[in-house]
Design brief:
With about 140 residues, the protein is mainly β. The chain is about 5% helix and about 55% strand. The protein is built from one helix and eight strands; from the N terminus they run E-E-H-E-E-E-E-E-E. Strands 1, 2, 3, 4, 5, 6, 7 and 8 form an eight-stranded antiparallel sheet that branches. A hairpin with a 6-residue loop joins strand 5 and strand 6. The protein is globular. The protein starts with a strand and ends with a strand.
Length: about 140
């Protein structure tokens, strides 16, 4: 059975935070499961989130909940193990909605992931994400 792979020892990074206000819009809000908090990016044609897991994991699903109007049209999931270069695992195409969206991932064993979100629907190129879940199994 799949469960969340993000744990307290997972190191996460994001491309930007709106107005550098990490208290209100920081990366920690991607994973806190609180409905009222979110990560909000600054402007740009693409944004990204990287995850470094404390051990190798097998990813099976990616779930994202955007704020409608602050979504993206294209996404890419890349992964790698150890020192190898990131390789593409999946292209996905989110809807511009408030619903939690699920993207099945072909079985990938990695210890690093990068989620790239391109072509924002917001005129200024901002993204708002309430939840980012990476599901699978620890190896």
């Amino acid at each position: 059975m799949s469960h969340s792979l993000v744990c307290p020892d997972t190191v996460s990074r994001v491309s930007s935070v709106l107005n550098r206000n990490t208290r209100l819009f920081g990366k920690k809000h991607l994973f806190d499961q609180v409905e009222e908090t979110c990560w909000s990016s600054d402007q740009g044609p693409a944004q990204w989130v990287t995850l470094e897991f404390p051990q190798c994991v097998r990813v099976s699903q990616l779930r994202i909940q955007f704020q409608g109007g602050f979504s993206c049209r294209r996404g890419r999931l890349e992964g790698a193990q150890g020192t190898e270069a990131l390789g593409k695992i999946l292209d996905f195409y989110p809807e511009d909605s408030n619903s939690l969206q699920t993207f099945p991932v072909p079985a990938a064993e990695v210890d690093r992931l990068k989620v790239t979100l391109e072509d924002p629907t917001d005129f200024f190129g901002r993204l708002v994400i309430y939840h980012l879940l990476v599901l699978g199994e620890k190896m």
